[in-house]
Write the structure tokens for this entry.
Amino acid sequence: MYCHHHAGDGRTAIHGERASEGEIGFSHDPVAMAVDIDASEDLKLLGNAAFKSRHFSQAEDLYSQAIEKHPSNPVLWSNRAAAHLHLEEYGSAISDATKAIELDPSFTKAYYRRGEAQFSLSHFQEAVGNFRSAAKLSPQDPVLRKRLQESER
């Protein structure tokens, strides 16, 4: 679909398939947005399957596509952080886990994943801080308690 946008000086610009906000053809339709959320969920499930099959690069790509469709979903950012961890892309893992925490400050797994990435980069103080945050959010989780104890040594 092409749309025509009339500039204030009388010129007409023709835009490609995607119109930007404020131009003709841009939709704030909740039904259209739901389609993106549904597509995002499908991509997340495919990413989860790839991850479980240890195809971490494919999982990272699928989570990236899901994020494009629903960037405010912290689970997608955290899942992509996990894929980055397995690919030993620790800086990217930290960035994605941080984004997940910004979107949901109570997301235990995001703190844990950021801590794992920081630990892998020998950023031990930051890692301990993240493991502590995760343990505070999930005090009964034995894996978190053990990881915190290991990192504090």
Summary: The mean pLDDT is 82.
